[in-house]
Structures are given as structure tokens and as C-alpha cells.
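Bit of a strange request maybe. I'm writing a small parser for C-alpha cell strings and I need a real example to test against, not something I typed by hand. Could someone generate the C-alpha cells for this chain?
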Amino acid sequence: IAYSEKKVVDFGNSIDGFILKDRSPSCGINNVKVYSEKHGMVVQKSMGLFAEKMKESFPEIPMENEGRLSNKELREHFLTSVFTLARFRLLTYNKSIKDLQLFHAQHKYLLMGYNQSLMRELGKIAANSNKEKYEVVYEKYYASLLKVFKRIPRKNNMINIFMHNMGYFKKELKPSEKAMFLESLDKYRIGIVTQSTINHLLESWIVRFEEEYLNNQYFF
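Reply from user aminoacidic:
Good idea to test on real output. This should exercise your parser:
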């Protein structure tokens, strides 16, 4: 417990996510066996002591146990969350509203795929129409950004984004290429392929047709 409390201070604002040891007495997120001191029997299941302190101190930070990361969708979601938050944290160096607005613009489709209403809310924060100080705007944006990654995006949301992005190339693509893309979307819908599979297909067209706007989108 003392170690955990010290690590909270050491980590400060530098944490973007946790991968914790499954069922560990220190790091297990759930299903950690708690034994009776008298009888040696399992009396309940709880969080590990370190995990519990981290959850209490960083309640919104992405946290996953190692075992669940073998699931492709959970792993993709977790890594997307962590890398996006890490990129956002870099904005603490220049402290520029313009850089924050650029961050929002470059993450438009990613945020839209996760949560359209929060994407619009973040856009209003980044616009800073009230001319608030950078630190205030940054903290407001960060608080809402953490909410974006609370759950895996709905597949229907992502499919809408995929279709919208495919529209950039509808005049250049052959009918057979469009058919292959739609077939891949069906495979994504039923869980045969992951989001990154569709992203790579779209990304190949971004490179082929030199689509600069999409090339700057972190969705890819």
C-alpha cells in the first residue's frame, strides 16, 4: 500500500494507460482471491492492492488486464486510447491553442467513430470562443477526451466512417475494388477482421491517390 501511494506521486500526470497482471494480489483488476486469515478459504474476490490504488487515483485512465489483450478488438481499442492520450499530452510543451485545434482536426474521424456528441463537444472546447487561458482549455479538453475512450466504439459508427472515407475515392476506384471493400466491411461487421484491416485498405488508397487530408488523419 505504501509503495502504491508513492507511485501515485511518482507518476503525476505522466500516465496514459495501465496493463496489469491478471489475478495478481497486487495488480489484478478483478477476480483476485481474498482469503480468510483464520481458515485459509477464499471469502471474496476483489481488486489487487496496487490496481485498486491506481483506479482510485487515475479513475479515467485506460486500464486493462493482460489476459484480455489477447482479444483483438480490446487490444486495438486499448492501444488507440493510450497512443491518442500520449499524443495529447505532448501539447503540454508548447501550450498553443493552435496546436490543440490542429490535434482536434487531425483526430476528427477517430473521435467521430468513438462518439460523435463528444467529438462536437471537444470541437467547441478547442475553438475557445470565450478566449480562456490555455491551461483551462487543455484541462477541459483532456477531461472530455478521457470520456471518449470509456468504451469500445460501436461497429455501426465505424462503418459509417469507413464508408464516408471511401467516398473520397469513389470516382477513381474500379467496381471490383468497391465490391472488395464492401465485402471487407461485412467481415468487419461479423468480427472476422478488425478495424485495422479496413484502415490498411483505405490507407493504400490514400497513398495511391495522394489524398492529403486523410493522410493527416490519425484515424489511420
